[in-house]
Amino acid sequence: MFKKVLIANRGEIAVRVIRACQDLGIKTVAVYSELDSDALHVRLADEAYALGGQTAAESYLNTEAIIDIIKRSGAEAVHPGYGFFSENAEFAEAIADVGVTFIGPKPDAIRVMGDKISAREAAEKVGVHGVPGNTTFLEDPSQVIEFGEKHGWPLAIKAAFGGGGRGMKVVNSADEAADALESAQREAIAYFGRDECYVEKYLTKPRHLEIQLLCDTHGNGVYIGQRDCSAQRRHQKLIEEAPAPAISPEIAQAMGEAALKVAKGCGYANAGTVEFLYENGEFFYLEMNTRLQVEHPVTEMISGLDLVALQIKVAAGEELPFTQDDITLHGHAIEVRINAEDPAAGAFLPSPGKITKLVAPSGYGVRWDGGYESGDEVSQFYDNLTGKLVCWAQDRPTAIARTLRALREFTLEGVATTIPADIAILAHQDFQNTTHSTKWVEDTLDLSDIGDAKIVSEELLEEKPDNVRKEISVEVDGKQFNVAAWVPDLVAAKKKSAAASSQGGSGSGSVTAPMQGTVVKVLVEEGQKVAAGDTVIVLEAMKMENNIIAEKAGTVSEVAVSEGQSVSGGDSLLTIE
Question: Of 184, 186, 192, which is closest to residue 235 (Cα–Cα)?
Fold first, then answer.
């Protein structure tokens, strides 16, 4: 077994891996950007080293810096979590080249499945079929149009080296092809460092189902139930549950066996997930994620297995301690992603800022996997997931009721969250009757009653000049240490206000930024006429592109920003007269 593991990630998944390592008696090494110097994963780890930089590209995607810290810390293995380098074959190879174990599949398997086109071809070879798609990288919008005219609209442009809905755009007509391809490529390179995309048919009302796999290096492999991840917005999951409801045992078994075929076909080892689309009694292969999934806790809750601990043991060369026949599932589990987003009127706008108060619910069958505590900052530069609320019960109706109770008990102030939308989803008869689909949240669910989020701000505190003993962090040669010091007790508090309105407010001619972010595209110029509802600015925040629209028709009299510029919530973007 490893003595020391470096976690090449941040947020709740880094916290999750740190805790699993500590349960196994393994020392942990955290890495952090300038913005994360006092983050929860840094506070919990045995050691913490600075990566430098603020953005993901400058820090958590800096291979050279991570390799240097591996050497300095003496870590024997690296757990990549999810996102960042978790599905990057070159990073896994770089880890192996310095004699350190990558806690995940071999680079060859990552390479095959990380490229969604070669993954489709690999699945076809073992008799597992997906929806109609093109296995050629897109270089021009004409390829998108050609596919749409042949197979029909809508279709989906997807990042070939991505997942989780990032870099995915739905195209409803030929007129949308060029803008959709450009946007998908921008998101793909921002989140995955590569902009290759492909196209496939977009099903109208599918459910999103997936199979959790675990394979060792001795040729053994099992699937551990199914999950339903159909409650989504922007093709990213909001709520997941296990086992997948309203699926026949025959379909469930067929999907599990198909998933194992895909995994064994590429010599897969470690934890992984094969995703399917399910519609009208048929399932279609979607992709394989060669990593731990965000929603792995619901599988843990119904199986009693610690998937992260098993990942570590498999990477250390241990054989799986059970077979397919040994796996039994009990009850039902639901996971709710608590994102820093304002769901007012269904907009789901990113809401970075300081969490002024966080009190997670508790009680029988309630679990909180969080990456933040009161006083922590949710940065615009990273994913907006603050944590995951997971509830288990003996049956699905009770699990839903328990999750609703826990959500209403949840206190998270300082940033807007998806909690109001989560409650609306779980309380809806369509969800409770399992008649929803991946399009349901955006196309059917009525969130008009969810108003602008009320964000509780920190109060200005009086200065207290008396010296007090405090625990502080100091950094020496890139390594962080916690020490005690007598310092003036000066509390510098500033009020945080989030502009929760979506695009400038009440038909105003002033178009303002609804959140912190970076301008990635300005679609209009001074003197140009626009109609109400036209997209005028594309703003990127928390790795998501957001279309900023004109609320009134008129002529653009001033453009106050340029591409690449950072803005704060409430900043003026342009004026329409």
Answer: 184
